Amino acid sequence: MKKHYSLVHADKIMAILKKEMRGIKSVKDNASIEVWANCREQGYCIKVNSPDYKTDIAICFAQQRSSDAIVVIAGPSREFDNQTNQPSDKVWGDNRRHFSVDIEAAKFIARKIMMVVEPVATVIMES
Questions:
Q1: DSSP secondary-structure letter at 22?
Q2: Closest CA to 86 of 41, 49, 25, 122
Q3: Is the dihedral of CA 37, 94, 32, 55 positive or negative?
Q4: Sign of CA dihedral 72, 81, 42, 94
Q5: DSSP state string for 27-54
Q6: What is the pLDDT of residues 25-69, one digit of tens each?
Q7: Higher model confidence: residue 66 or residue 89?
Q8: Whole-angstrom Cα distance, residue 107 to residue 101?
Q9: What is the pLDDT of residue 51?
Q10: Residue 1 and residue 26 in contact, taking contact as beta carbons nearer than 8 Å
Q11: Region 80-94: what's the mean pLDDT?
């Protein structure tokens, strides 16, 4: 069987994330992978719980249906539907990013995850 076209990039990004974030306990303990489907786009949604549960985020990604670009939508978890992981119109409009390279999308997603689970370490890494 053949995978849906939008899962090809999503699988590559997920493989990069798993490799790069392997062994980071705070990620393993606080991030979970779910599915995301937006009509013709299918991919993954990573839910990340913050230590204080005040800055939880969701990050959904897939190949965009109208191009080869990778679409990444990130925002507060409360702005995503609990059953479908579909972002609110505000998050879709304000927090959608496009990437042409899998590794760039993976780096962006990894930074978002680390900003939630290890905010102090992220600030030090970016300095």
A1: T
A2: 41
A3: negative
A4: negative
A5: HHHHEEEEEEEETTEEEEEEEE--TTSS
A6: 888 888 999 999 877 788 999 999 887 778 899 999 998 877 888
A7: 89
A8: 10
A9: 79
A10: no
A11: 90
